[in-house]
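Example 3.2
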Amino acid sequence: MTSKNTICLWYEGDALEAATFYAKTFPDSAVGAVHLAPGDYPAGKQGDVLTVEFTVMGIACLGLNGGPMFKHSRRSRFRWPLTIRPRPTGCGMRSSTTAARRAPVAGAGTSGGCRGRSLRGC
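Structure, written as tokens:
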């Protein structure tokens, strides 16, 4: 399903650099239209990058250079779900992803038929 929303991220002045970084880092990502200032304005001059349209993993984004009073926050993050591989069966553990997330850390306890052995040894 394609999202109809666009994520708007505010930057101090490096929206194009951020969009380029995301496009190089994540699959299905690209930098689109770059909109420049048509004339001078209080926080900049003609030709400065105002907005950058880009996609990150197929999600539409807009980078907005808001000027020095709008610093980019570390609280803005992209988050994607990760696929968790099931743990191997054969030692009494279930093979679902829930069981894999709940599996004890090696040597931290016992589970099923793995008493006293690490999960890697099952």
